[in-house]
Specification:
Blueprint lengths: L1 H17 L7 E8 L3 E3 L2 E3 L2 E9 L6 E10 L11 E6 L3 H6 L1 E8 L1 H14 L6 E2 L6 H11 L12 H11 L34
Antiparallel strand pairs: 1-4, 1-7, 2-3, 4-5, 5-6, 6-8
Helix pairs in contact: 3-4
Length: 203
């Protein structure tokens, strides 16, 4: 009788463990949007952005955050002068239309460092937009370096080309071409962010 009870308890414990919540983790994905088309009366330009999803290990809080850096006041004036920039959240449809180039799991601390760095880009020191030299690609490259990834040469005005070259430098995090082929999970060691006042290099 006691043997049957022990077996039943063991079976119940194993079942509970199997049905328990998945391991908490945050996944960062770096995308490029092709742009070059009109939707809803607006011209969509090529763009680079990052999307974080999953949940934090220490709190269990859900994570669903996307960000890209763009001009606050788009217009032809940006061909000749700098302007104000803003970290904007692309809509879910827009994110879904992009092509993923890099995908990797990060620690809670690394995710928070990325968010803090994005906040810096949205603040007084970081929110300077230059179409040719400090654009959405510069933003993505800076966030990638915060989590320890190597980045391709800057400045650049071609998001897809830049992220493809960056993926080649980080093969373990690269997403294989194709509509649904994903890169294998890649654990990135925790890396401290750059000093809060430091600006990305501009060549």
């Amino acid at each position: 009788m006691f043997g049957k009870m022990r077996r039943a308890l063991l079976a119940g414990l194993l079942l509970a463990m199997a049905a328990g919540p998945a391991l908490a983790e945050v996944t960062l994905t770096f995308y490029a949007h092709p742009g070059a088309r009109v939707r809803g009366g607006e011209l969509l330009f090529p763009h680079a952005y990052v999307h974080a999803s999953g949940s934090l290990e220490d709190t269990g809080d859900a994570v669903d955050w996307a960000a890209g850096f763009t001009a606050k006041n788009p217009g032809p004036q940006l061909l000749f002068a700098r302007g104000a920039g803003v970290v904007a959240t692309p809509e879910a449809r827009y994110v879904g239309e992009g092509r993923p180039y890099l995908r990797l799991k990060v620690t809670d601390d690394a995710y928070r460092a990325v968010r803090a760095r994005a906040d810096w880009w949205n603040g007084p020191e970081g929110s300077v937009y230059d179409l040719r030299r400090r654009n959405c690609i510069s933003f993505i490259a800076d966030l990638a370096r915060v989590i320890g990834l190597a980045t391709a040469q800057e400045p650049s005005m071609k998001p897809g080309t830049f992220l493809e070259a960056t993926a080649a430098l980080n093969p373990r995090a690269a997403v294989a071409p194709g509509p649904s082929t994903l890169a294998p999970d890649f654990e990135v060691p925790e890396a401290p962010p750059e000093p809060a006042g430091a600006s990305p290099p501009m060549s």
